[in-house]
Specification:
Trefoil (Acidic Fibroblast Growth Factor, subunit A); 14-stranded antiparallel β-sheet; 371 residues; elongated; 27 strands; Jelly Rolls; 41% strand; mainly beta; seven-stranded antiparallel β-sheet
């Protein structure tokens, strides 16, 4: 009789719930979707402090030496994603460079497959780290029938923080499925005219911001430099109001159609997100690219075309939603795309410019609703 694989998943913690170092949630193997040779776990996590020792997020297995698990490394909370194989009980990813920031929600995905011989970790929908099995004919992943522990595991303490939307899948999620789980359509809210928002650079996870430094563009023409600052939102400098295009009347509260022209007003300064051509050497200080500034004048230089990326076509249709990955194209300079990269200025902030046609990963921004 032929057998058919059935994709199943379960949300075993909806939450959010608070967890302390001694807290533990236990889920029996029989109550989870049946796994053959692949699985995925996704969850949302916020930690309140770094631990002086290893801290468990989840661990599946009756013994420490037979497991599928995700831990936080001591002191800086970098990920330690592990699994057991027939050649070693403790294979996988050992503490990537970057740890988690405190008091910030993250979406985490752990995907493991024996047929594909790999373990992948995603953070906020973006591929972050992977481990690949080299001896593909000999080495196999061991999937066990032990309980799933969330939080404290055996003699190891758990994390101090909050967790929600813990989901267990009996297949390896694709990159597109991880992104869909991160966005979670049921939780997405529309961005409307008048919304307070933040823009996060996808590649570096830093917020579009300003620090009050000005470009001197001539007599009576000083404009604030736009930068990318920290990975934690600054509610003074990182918040923008969505406006209509210059000279266009809009109704606050109306939905925003994609592939439309909009503007952004900086909450703290009252100035508009602006760019201009590179004549008279008006370029960024390091990369010599097209400047992005804050300007009080509301002419056509503050108009931006908004497009949403998706996995199947270049750009999407519909309405602008919180969590969308978007490109912003400056209208008056031939649709140069808003851009940033890991080029640091003297104060360690990140340079922002208009550069390229939107095809680079550095042109991608995530829009987040503040209220």
């Amino acid at each position: 009789m032929p057998k058919f694989a059935v994709k199943e998943w379960a949300e075993i913690i909806s939450g959010p719930i608070s967890m302390r170092e001694q807290d533990q949630q236990v889920f029996e193997h029989a109550d989870l979707p049946a796994v053959k040779d692949k699985l995925s776990v996704t969850l949302r996590l916020k930690i309140h402090n770094h631990h002086s020792d290893w801290a468990a997020i989840f661990h599946k297995g009756r013994k420490y030496s037979l497991r599928l698990c995700l831990w936080l490394a001591k002191d800086k909370s970098g990920f330690n994603a592990r699994f057991s194989g027939n050649w070693h009980h403790d294979a996988g990813i050992y503490e990537p460079d970057n740890g988690l920031l405190l008091n910030k929600w993250y979406h985490i995905a752990y995907t493991l497959s024996d047929p594909e011989k790999r373990l992948d970790i995603y953070i906020d929908g973006e591929w972050f780290e992977f481990y690949s099995i080299l001896k593909v004919k000999e080495q196999k992943v061991i999937f066990n029938d032990g309980p799933l522990y969330v939080g404290r595991s055996f003699n190891w303490k758990g994390f101090n923080g909050e967790i929600s939307n813990f989901r267990y899948f009996n297949w390896r999620l694709s990159a597109e499925e991880v992104m869909e789980d991160f966005f979670n359509e049921s939780q997405k809210k529309p961005i409307v005219y008048g919304s307070k928002i933040a823009l996060v650079h996808v590649s570096t996870r830093k917020y579009l911001s300003t620090k009050g430094i000005k470009y001197d563009l001539g007599p009576n023409n000083e404009q604030y430099m736009v930068i990318c600052s920290g990975q934690e939102i600054n509610l003074k400098n990182d918040v923008w109001t969505v406006t209509g295009a210059s000279g266009k009347n809009i109704n606050e509260g109306d939905l925003i159609s994609l592939n439309n022209i909009i503007g952004f007003k900086h909450q703290a300064t009252g100035c508009y997100l602006h760019s201009h051509d590179t004549s008279y050497e008006r370029v960024t200080p390091i990369s010599q690219q097209q400047q992005v500034t804050l300007c009080s004048d509301r002419g056509s230089d503050v108009d931006w075309l908004v497009r949403r990326y998706n996995s199947t076509t270049s750009y999407d249709t519909g309405h602008l939603m919180s969590g969308d990955i978007i490109g912003l194209f400056h209208i008056s300079t031939n649709k140069q795309a808003l851009y940033s990269h890991a080029v640091l200025l003297g104060d360690r902030s990140q340079e922002v410019s208009c550069y390229g046609d939107g095809s680079e990963k550095n042109n991608r921004w995530r829009i987040e609703l503040i209220n």
